[in-house]
Amino acid sequence: MMMTTLITLLLTGFLSLATPDSNNTETASLKEDSRWLAWEGDKNKAPGKGKRIVFIAGDEEYRSEEGMPMLARLMNSHGFECIVLFSQDEETGEVDPETLDHIPGLHLLDDADAMVLFLRFRELPDEDMAHIVNFVESGKPVTGFRTATHAFFYRENPESPHAHWTWNAQKPAGGFGGHVLGETWVSHHGGHGSQATRGVIEETNAKHPALRGVKDVFGPTDVYGIRSLPEDSTILLRGGVVDGMDEDDELVTGEQNDPMMPLAWVRERQMPDGSSQRIFATTMGTAEDWSSEDLRRLFANAMLWQLQEEDAIPPGGLEAPMIGPWEPTPFGFGTHKRGYKPEDYRNGSPWAKTETSSRPSEDAQ
Questions:
Q1: Cα(352)–Cα(337) distance, integer angstroms
Q2: Quick one: 101 exposed, middle or buried, by C-beta within 10 A (0-12, 13-18, 19+)?
Q3: What does the buried/exposed string (b/e) look like for 26-40 if buried means 16 or more CB atoms within 10 Å of the residue's CB?
Q4: What do you get for the CA distance between the two ends of the chain, in Å?
Q5: Architecture of domain 36-186+274-331 in this structure
Q6: Phi-psi region of 203 (alpha: psi -120 to 50; beta: other; left: phi over 0)
């Protein structure tokens, strides 16, 4: 009997040495893989309690590669594990929003609690896209910023099983944007680059938990056109078209603001099993927009509401400080900063003039 017990203990010890713990392996992989950014969560820190948020950045115009790491640092300060995935050059590893078909790390969605998308016209390989599709179909929280209304566009592979998520698809109408977020790409309602946006609280929904502490939202992106939203949507902010690009400029008078377009909304989308999926979407989101503290607060509040933790939102809303140096690049095609890799964005805008700022990768062109 003693000999049997001894052999069992020896075998157990041997197997524990030979078989690595999967959780420890994944933690190490998250920290060490240079293809994405990861911040470890804190299971003992409320309200995040270690839950995983995966941010996916990939648009050519609105500098999601800058805004998403900043928002990840914010949510990590609340205890969440945060991961940022980037569109990037497959050969060099450089962050490249003009690469439409390569976003490493999408498998990390499989264990995520929430997904935040800022994509534009991506066409991903089927095996990668499957991770996004499976996450959405799981009913877990989905957040979409600005061009996420037209996140996907299957031009090269229209026979893909995921091609029905193309932004102008008919079944479902509007593809991913129309079916999941509530609207696809429609139009620029405000003057692009000439008329900024002021968020105006929808008074009938002013007591929604996501709006706690939200009073002053302003950003340089223009208001998007919205035709209609599903009946299960709740409008939080309307988009006031501003007569100019400065925060002190007044709202435009006349038909352009009568009525104002929806700017931020939530959905409780019914799932096949009878549950509801909590969704947050806003047509704001360029990097400069996130200089607005109350826009950051709206996102943070909405994330807790999506995770059914609205009781954890204080009366004045979650704290939404700017963490790290912040020098956002103005929106525009071809304006993204070249030569940077994911790790360069960890602590803030890598070109910010501070003693600890990062520098472009040595192999930058």
A1: 12
A2: middle
A3: eeeebeeeebbbbbe
A4: 69
A5: 3-Layer(aba) Sandwich (3.40)
A6: alpha
pLDDT of residue 364: 35
**Residue 266 pairs with which residues in a beta bridge?**
234, 280
Indicate left, alpha or beta for 274 from its phi (over 0: left) and psi (-120 to 50: alpha).
Answer: left
DSSP state of 255: G
Relative orientation angle of helices 293-306 and 64-76, to the nearest 10 degrees: 60
Strand partners for 92: none
Contact 169, 200 (CB under 8 A): no
Tokens encoding 190:
């405000």
pLDDT < 70: residue spans in the chain: 1-32, 354-365
pTM of the predicted structure, to 2 decimals: 0.90
Site of tokens 């009913």:
139
Q: Which residues contact 290 (CB under 8 A, 6 or more apart)?
A: 67, 70, 71, 219, 296, 328
Q: In the chain, where are the structural domains located?
A: 36-186+274-331
Considering only CA atoms, which of 85, 30, 76 is closest in space to residue 345? 85
φ and ψ at residue 54, rounded to 5 degrees: -105, 120
> 103 and 122 in contact (C-beta within 8 Å)?
yes
3-state secondary structure of 155: coil
- Residue (of 136, 161, 162, 145) closest to 278 by Cα position: 136
Tens digit of each residue's pLDDT (9 = 90 or more) over 24-59: 445 545 666 999 999 999 999 999 999 999 999 999
Q: Are 243 and 194 in contact (CB under 8 A)?
A: no
Distances in Å between the Cα of 87 and the Cα atoms of 55, 298, 347 are 12, 26, 19
